[in-house]
Amino acid sequence: MRRPLIAGNWKMNLNRSESMGLAQGIVQGNCPGGVEVVLCPTFVYLDAVSGVLDGTSVKLGGQDAYHESNGAFTGAISMVMLADLGCDYVILGHSERRHKMNETNAMINAKLKVALATGITPILCIGELLEEREAGQTQAVVESQIDGSLASLNAEHVAQIVIAYEPVWAIGTGKTATPEQAQDVHDDLRKLLASRYNATSAAAVRILYGGSVKPSNAAELLSQPDIDGALVGGASLQTDSFLEIIAASTAEAAS
Ligand code: PGA
User: Fold this and answer.
1) Number of structural domains, the chain?
2) Ligand 1 atom 2, closest CA
3) pLDDT tens across 29-60, in order?
């Protein structure tokens, strides 16, 4: 049984006190035990948010990290540093990093291996552009992102990661994939993992949906059999809307 996971990607938003206040609100919302909740603030406020989450069940994640552990890499943050601040998760390969910062599958693969070696669970993001969907290339695009990002990992490693399917055209646009469109891709992804690795790992991997998830569409998306949670951007910046999404996933877990 895959435990639902709801992760909030705060991106480059909120100041220090707003970040701590939002984390406090989520903690006080008494997130139910059946769902795993992860908050991903910007790097510079990880420590402050970590202090708020300390001793609670809400987990901390980084939004990215570099593949080297230390050294002369000006401006970079390592997985070891994230672990030191209490991060259990790291988002890797987000479409904003792939498309705005030119990250390649090879770079994401290097980061993913270091995350696993450091004991941080990667949330690997994949997803197609609008023109790729319209050209009928969705499956081919996500397949090549999976193959490139997971290169040389084995079935045991793959069982430990989380995948987030985020169609790029749905991120921050208010357009969401329909539950059927998302379920189709998630189902294809699980079949792909079974064929590349094995059925046990494929069944264990949690596949989140991301892209304009909000309280009004969360329950329907999360009720799909292969959607195991959500990676939430905009709607994770408000305590009430994020708590409502968490509640929608728990209702699904209980049903
Ligand atoms: P959104 O972002 O919920 O604002 O569309 C999702 C994401 O980028 O992870």
Assistant:
1) 1
2) 233
3) 988 889 999 999 999 999 999 999 999 999 99
Q: Which residues are catalytic?
A: 94, 166
CB distance 145 to ligand 1 below 6 Å: no
What is the Å distance from ligand 1's center to 72 Cα?
Answer: 32
Q: Classify residue 1: in a domain, yes or no.
A: no
pLDDT of res. 255 = 47
Could you give the CA distance from residue 4 to residue 21 in angstroms, rounded to a whole number? 24
Whichever domain contains 244, its CATH number is: 3.20.20.70
How many Å apart are CA 61 and CA 11, to the nearest integer? 12
Sign of CA dihedral 31, 34, 35, 36: positive
57 contacts 31 by C-beta, under 8 angstroms: yes
Q: Which atom of ligand 1 is nearest to the CA of 11?
A: 8
pLDDT over 80 (residue 179): yes
Q: How far are the Cα atoms of 105, 146, 158, 197 from residue 194, in angstroms, in the given order?
A: 20, 12, 10, 5
pLDDT, tens digit (0-9, with 9 covering 90-100), for 229-245: 999 999 999 999 999 99
Residue 3, in any domain of the structure: no
pLDDT at position 30: 81
On the question of pLDDT at 65 being above 70, the answer is yes
Contact 211 CB / ligand 1 (< 6 Å) = yes
- Please state, in angstroms and as integers, the Cα–Cα distance from residue 176 to each residue in 85, 168, 210, following that order: 33, 10, 9
* Ligand 1 touching residue 177 (CB < 6 A): no
Helix (H, G, I), strand (E, B) or coil at 164: strand
Q: How confident is the model at residue 174 (pLDDT cuts 50, 70, 90)?
A: confident
Whether 4 maps to a domain, the answer reads no
Structural domain of 87? 9-254
